[in-house]
Amino acid sequence: MNLCEHIRKIPDFPREGILYRDITPLLSNPDAFEYAISKMTGIAKDLKPDVIVGIESRGFMFAIPISMNLGLPFVPVRKKGKLPYQTVSVSYELEYGGDSLEIHTDALTPGTRVLIVDDLIATGGTVKACVELVGGLNAKVVGVVTLIDLVDIRNEDWFPGININSLIKY
To answer: Which of 88, 108, 126, 168 has its CA 20 to 30 A from that of 2?
Structure first.
């Protein structure tokens, strides 16, 4: 299945000069979504994680089914102020602004093998922040799985030794 056929391109969103990759057509097609989850689950399985970490919010749509398929715990990484317990936080820059991510302080134990899942990696700022959060809890990132990778704008220098896997590359 050609997953690119289920990704809509929206120019100048959320601001001028950005070509937004809209995944809602894929999400609204059960066959395409199931196919994407199946492929991402296969990649995840090969990396042998102990835990699946999903990045708010679209990353949750992929991380939760992958964690369920593999019988692994799901750990959410959320925007600042959204988690109810004690957290650690990291600030980061996006292609169109900045934000902060948080994880519960007890979400991961030292040495835990973590797979980070998100819908898309653009500059890599969000994933880099998530890698920092995981490392701050002394867990090990075994890889990153995304639906889409915008390879032309991703900062490769931010991910030395980290296996980044994506189903679609633009």
So the answer is: 126
Per the annotation, the verdict on 58 as an active-site residue is yes
CATH 2.60.120.260 is the classification of domain 3-169: no
- CA 39, CA 27: separation in Å to the nearest integer? 15
Query: Is pTM, for the whole model, over 0.70?
Result: yes
Tell me the one-letter amino acid at 168.
I
Residues 65-93: tens digit of each pLDDT: 999 999 999 999 999 999 999 999 999 87
Catalytic residue among 16, 34, 56, 58: 58
Q: What is the DSSP letter of 72?
A: -
Active-site hit among 16, 93, 95, 132: 95
Q: Give yes or no: 21 in active site.
A: no
